[in-house]
Amino acid sequence: MQNSKNQMVDLLISHNQILVRSRAYSEKLSQWGKENIEQGAVIHEDYVIFDPLPEEAFGANVFLKLTNNFVMDENTQRCIVTPFYINNSNNVEVASAAEKFKINIEFDTSLYDLYYEICEDDEVFYKFTFVPAEKPIVARYLIDDPWGGEKDKALKLGFL
User: What is the DSSP letter of 139?
Assistant: First the structure.
């Protein structure tokens, strides 16, 4: 399932984080403050980290997609949207503390609405959907979820 608009990776998720970045790893940008932990995300313009929710280390499929319209998966348990900037399309990665994968999608603009979904069917899986944007969207939850996410509640950017 890999082409110029779709990719799937089997990612070893650990240390309560799954992230997408369009820059090199940064210790400074990887820090979680108390409010980041409460909202389940650390959001920087080109470096976003999300809480995958399960506590232990585990492998999970991560689906990456570039599309013009976001359609939420019917198995979604949590959904967040955030602005995401790509300054170098050759340096976009999906990662955890344990491993990283280059995202081989053909990005052709610098600003995207990035949708993050935690889904559960037979197993937990994750989705990142990139939708080209002309102006930054307000980062927010898109559904109520069992971990405290409230539909349309805005998320704060940066280290909090």
Answer: P
